[in-house]
From TrEMBL:
This is Phospho-2-dehydro-3-deoxyheptonate aldolase. InterPro entries: Aldolase_TIM, DAHP_synth_2. Pathway: Metabolic intermediate biosynthesis; chorismate biosynthesis; chorismate from D-erythrose 4-phosphate and phosphoenolpyruvate: step 1/7. It is an enzyme of class 2 (transferase). Its EC number is 2.5.1.54. It comes from the Bacteria. It comes from Ornithinimicrobium kibberense. One of its GO terms (molecular function) is 3-deoxy-7-phosphoheptulonate synthase activity.
Length: 457
């Protein structure tokens, strides 16, 4: 399969720059109409990159600090972004939530936090089943707004190639606002109080408010002492990430960096391959092995030493610092058995990548009311097991990767301001997996800050 690539400035590159993607098995792919798809691909390939290669390089440097134990990464956002939810308030509240969590982690643990949003591209979902049956009617499963619609009708569930373009535009609009917020003064460290406004004021928000007071005092002290750099305080580094799942989206977004001739997935700063598509000889691992972005691979409880080493050899043969992150999602009940043994079996190699904990995907269950949910306590327990495993193996716990929203939803149960099983129907808005709400997200940040500061065993 041959596609024409453009360079990272969006200009069509010389013919020699065309990318010859090998024809490898690719799981979880949509079946778009071929004629519609051909048209869409030719359009997508001419659209401007969403990120610049130099930004991806910067994130790789930041992730190198994570791998070395000098920084911690916070990765968070929706399980599935939706086109309808690309609104100013939704994006603002998700950004505020991540900024607040990052402040809690930075201030609480004194560690630099590499902030990454699961956003501006997280529009496709791998599914356990291809179909969904309701009341005797079977239709294709919902696979994310990049593929089909959630509504349970044959029209909505049809795989529609035009959605690739809509996902691109939605990602572009999202990233534009994120860049505005993070560089235009909204994320100014002197606004830590303001980020807490507009949210329901539960125990975690109150605790945050106290911390914000202390930060204010510290910032005023630094300003008065003349050592605070006002420009530096105005800006925050924030990166985008999503699962590189639909190759008909990711491949046309691959561009050759005009500075070096190297390939980058310009749809996002960071992309990862999911648990269901990480086959060593599959198209997804091949895809990430060809781009220079920092990349991740999810590892479930069945991942073994040989697989992990083979993934490293394939994706990161040079062991480039910051290049590869393993995002473990073992489940609270398995992580303490599985992860220490895996890390130990890797020996020195375990120090050459970053390790991030996804405490969500191994802890999903269905409530009696039929909602897919997770217990906040299981999420915390998996993170605790993650820290303990790294302490045991002598490796660095590098970060957390969570499904969250700034909205006051009732999708995960538990927390200090608890959502009960009976509450799930009140505000269950996700179209795929349950997310931590604002309160639960902040609470998690406080708990993780303590683990970072004290270490957990
Ligand atoms: O986000 C992850 C997966 O897409 C999701 O957990 C799959 O859910 P399913 O088992 O309902 O298909
Ligand atoms: C699909 C996801 O996770 P996993 O691949 O770990 O199941 C996800 O992160 O939404
Ligand atoms: Mn998910």
């Amino acid at each position: 399969m041959v596609r024409v690539s453009t360079d990272t400035t969006g200009l069509t590159a010389a013919p020699g720059a065309a990318i010859d993607w090998p024809d490898l098995p690719a799981k979880q792919q949509p079946s778009y109409d071929p004629a519609e798809l051909a048209h869409v691909l030719s359009v997508l390939g001419t659209y401007p990159p969403l990120v610049f290669a130099g930004e991806a390089d910067l994130l790789r440097e930041r992730m190198a600090a994570v791998a070395a134990g000098r920084a911690f990464t916070l990765q968070g956002g929706d399980c599935a972004e939706t086109l309808a939810d690309v609104t100013g308030p939704n994006i603002r509240d998700r950004i505020k939530t991540i900024l607040q969590m990052a402040v809690v982690l930075t201030y609480g643990a004194g560690t630099p936090i590499v902030k990454v949003g699961r956003m501006a591209g997280q529009f496709a979902k791998p599914r356990s089943r291809d179909d969904e049956t309701r009341g005797g009617v079977t239709l294709p499963a919902y696979r994310g707004d990049m593929v089909n619609g959630f509504e349970f009708t044959p029209e909505a569930r049809r795989h529609d190639a035009d959605r690739l373009l809509r996902a691109y535009h939605a990602s572009s609009a999202t990233l534009n606002l994120v860049r505005g917020f993070t560089s235009g003064g909204f994320a100014d460290l002197r606004s830590v109080h303001a980020w807490n406004k507009g949210f329901i004021q539960g125990p975690a928000q109150k605790r945050y408010e106290q911390m914000a007071h202390q930060i204010d005092r510290a910032v005023r002290f630094l300003e008065a002492s003349g050592v605070a750099d006002a420009e530096e305080m105005r800006r925050v580094e924030f990166f985008s990430a999503h699962e590189a799942l639909v190759l008909d989206y990711e491949r046309p977004m691959v561009r050759r960096d005009h500075r070096t001739g190297l390939l980058y997935d310009t749809a996002s700063h960071f992309v990862w391959v999911g648990e269901r598509t990480r086959d060593l000889d599959g198209a997804h691992i091949d895809f990430v092995s060809r781009v220079q972005n920092p990349v991740g691979v999810k590892l479930g409880p069945t991942a073994d030493r040989d697989t992990v080493l083979a993934l490293m050899d394939k994706i990161d043969p040079e062991r480039t610092p910051g290049r590869l992150t393993f995002i473990t999602r073992m489940g609270a009940d398995q992580i303490r058995d599985v992860l220490p043994a895996l890390l130990t079996s890797l020996g020195e190699e375990a120090h050459r990548v970053s390790w991030v904990c996804d405490p969500m995907h191994g802890n999903t269950f269905t409530s009696p009311s039929g909602h897919k949910t997770r217990r906040f306590e299981d999420v915390v327990e998996e993170v605790r097991g993650f820290f303990a495993a790294h302490a045991e193996a002598g490796t660095h716990p590098g970060g957390i990767h969570v499904e969250l929203t700034g909205n006051d939803v009732t999708e995960c149960v538990g927390g200090v301001h608890p959502v009960d099983l009976d509450d799930l129907g009140l505000r269950y808005e996700t179209l795929c997996d349950p997310r931590l709400n604002h309160q639960q997200s902040l609470e998690l940040a406080f708990v993780v800050a303590e683990m970072l500061e004290r270490g957990v065993h």
